[in-house]
């Protein structure tokens, strides 16, 4: 039973490819429907974010560089962690309403409902990957390009699996526990500040506290992006954390979702 549910979960985008493709296309295009800027917002949004942070940290706080990353400006250092985090946070924040918003469809039509959390994770990662790609393109022209960049899609994929497992779990639980919607929004905010995105870990003086950051998987993801892109190195401790944690999240979240999905129609 366990392996049957996991196999169905893993094969969801393939066995239901047409439904998955249509849902993804529909939800992706819906972001720009009736928008004057249209797809231009895909480029403008990350550029505006980068510009704002550049102004705040470079001209107001006068922060220039981060210890251990050479002459790399603080804004570049920060955005390398911020953009992947933004994709993760967006996916988690949307998860609480995924099934509730699709309630009329779930209760009236019989279809593989497990497609919904997959699509709900793909959309924010696809959207924000464009902004991250623009940043990488800029950094490549500035001489940061190295062969370890080939590992970036792999790290991004594991982050996607980590997020997908959480999205599946949270979207399923929110059907029965609606208060989770407010709680998750608060947790995402706290999680952001517990991840060294807008501050370097070197600012933390206690070695014990630094070691506790390893309990935060997003800390390892952010570190890997910065090491690969800016230093051309990789810390195996971070790899040893993200691989099992991502797989555990993906399979556990998927299993819980598949286990209780039959009850969605009764509650919604």
Automatic annotation (TrEMBL):
<keyword id="KW-1003">Cell membrane</keyword>
<dbReference type="GO" id="GO:0140359">
    <property type="term" value="F:ABC-type transporter activity"/>
</dbReference>
<dbReference type="GO" id="GO:0015774">
    <property type="term" value="P:polysaccharide transport"/>
</dbReference>
<dbReference type="GO" id="GO:0015920">
    <property type="term" value="P:lipopolysaccharide transport"/>
</dbReference>
<keyword id="KW-0762">Sugar transport</keyword>
<keyword id="KW-0813">Transport</keyword>
<dbReference type="Pfam" id="PF01061">
    <property type="entry name" value="ABC2_membrane"/>
</dbReference>
<dbReference type="InterPro" id="IPR013525">
    <property type="entry name" value="ABC2_TM"/>
</dbReference>
<feature type="domain" description="ABC transmembrane type-2">
    <location>
        <begin position="37"/>
        <end position="260"/>
    </location>
</feature>
<keyword id="KW-0625">Polysaccharide transport</keyword>
<feature type="transmembrane region" description="Helical">
    <location>
        <begin position="183"/>
        <end position="202"/>
    </location>
</feature>
<feature type="transmembrane region" description="Helical">
    <location>
        <begin position="150"/>
        <end position="176"/>
    </location>
</feature>
<feature type="transmembrane region" description="Helical">
    <location>
        <begin position="113"/>
        <end position="138"/>
    </location>
</feature>
<feature type="transmembrane region" description="Helical">
    <location>
        <begin position="228"/>
        <end position="252"/>
    </location>
</feature>
<feature type="transmembrane region" description="Helical">
    <location>
        <begin position="28"/>
        <end position="54"/>
    </location>
</feature>
<keyword id="KW-0812">Transmembrane</keyword>
<feature type="transmembrane region" description="Helical">
    <location>
        <begin position="74"/>
        <end position="92"/>
    </location>
</feature>
<comment type="similarity">
    <text>Belongs to the ABC-2 integral membrane protein family.</text>
</comment>
<dbReference type="InterPro" id="IPR047817">
    <property type="entry name" value="ABC2_TM_bact-type"/>
</dbReference>
<dbReference type="GO" id="GO:0005886">
    <property type="term" value="C:plasma membrane"/>
</dbReference>
<keyword id="KW-1133">Transmembrane helix</keyword>
<protein>
    <recommendedName>
        <fullName>Transport permease protein</fullName>
    </recommendedName>
</protein>
<keyword id="KW-0472">Membrane</keyword>
């Amino acid at each position: 039973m366990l392996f049957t549910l996991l196999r169905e979960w893993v094969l969801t985008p393939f066995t239901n490819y047409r439904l998955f493709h249509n849902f993804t296309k529909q939800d992706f295009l819906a972001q720009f429907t009736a928008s004057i800027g249209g797809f231009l917002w895909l480029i403008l949004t990350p550029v505006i974010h980068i510009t704002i942070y550049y102004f705040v940290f470079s001209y107001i706080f006068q922060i220039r560089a981060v210890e251990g990353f050479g002459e790399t400006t603080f804004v570049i250092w920060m955005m390398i962690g911020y953009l992947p985090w933004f994709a993760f946070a967006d996916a988690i924040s949307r998860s609480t309403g995924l099934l509730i918003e699709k309630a009329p469809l779930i209760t009236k039509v019989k279809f593989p409902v497990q497609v919904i959390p997959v699509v709900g994770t793909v959309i924010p990662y696809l959207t924000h990957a464009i902004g991250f790609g623009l940043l990488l393109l800029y950094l490549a022209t500035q001489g940061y390009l190295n062969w370890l960049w080939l590992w970036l899609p792999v790290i991004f994929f594991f982050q996607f699996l980590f997020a997908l497992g959480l999205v599946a779990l949270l979207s399923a639980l929110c059907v029965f526990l609606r208060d989770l919607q407010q709680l998750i929004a608060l947790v995402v905010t706290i999680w952001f500040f517990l991840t060294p995105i807008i501050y370097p870990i070197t600012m933390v003086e206690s070695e014990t506290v630094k070691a506790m950051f390893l309990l935060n998987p997003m800390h390892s993801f952010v570190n890997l992006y910065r090491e690969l892109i800016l230093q051309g190195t990789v810390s195996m401790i971070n790899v040893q954390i993200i691989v099992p944690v991502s797989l555990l999240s993906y399979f556990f979240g998927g299993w819980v979702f598949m286990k209780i999905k039959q009850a969605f129609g009764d509650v919604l």
